[in-house]
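Minutes, project check-in
Item: structure for the 172-residue chain
Input as provided by the requester:
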Amino acid sequence: MYLLSLMKLMKLINILLLAAFVFFLQFFLVDLLSLKMIRPDFLVIYIFYISLVFGKTPGVLIGFSLGLLSDLSGVGSLFGLAPLTLSATAYLSGFLHGKYERLLPYVFHSAWISIIASHFLLISYFRFQTVFVSDPITFWMQWFMSFSYTMLFFLIVQFFYPVKEASRAEIT
């Protein structure tokens, strides 16, 4: 019993330390990697993997907390947007927890790609509402560029820790 609770505590500490590392990576490195106001979002990659491995509830809690820290530290532009989008992404990604073996591979992969794309669509719409109204082509290009730039880093992470391994099916 003691060993089981100690293992849970160590798992929680690992999750929180990795969350702090990703937050500081986002805070300090994002300005160096930005290309004409297009920035990678390392927090959404981390939240996606947390929700895929541990489910909806831990993902939403960590997503909301990291989003709130992001907004309070000045990384986000609109207060409350990061907690909203990260929580929604974690909630939707949590539905894919343990579903890789149960879904067809193209359905599974198109689901998580569309979840990440909707995350960036929400962020882009709230940040660039006036651009959406005045010049929709520029808006969609801005959305696509921010989505694809983060997906580039997502594919680098996926090389080391594939989505297939993160979503192990639990047969009950």
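Outcome recorded: Residues 2-33 form the longest helix (32 residues).
No further action items on this chain.
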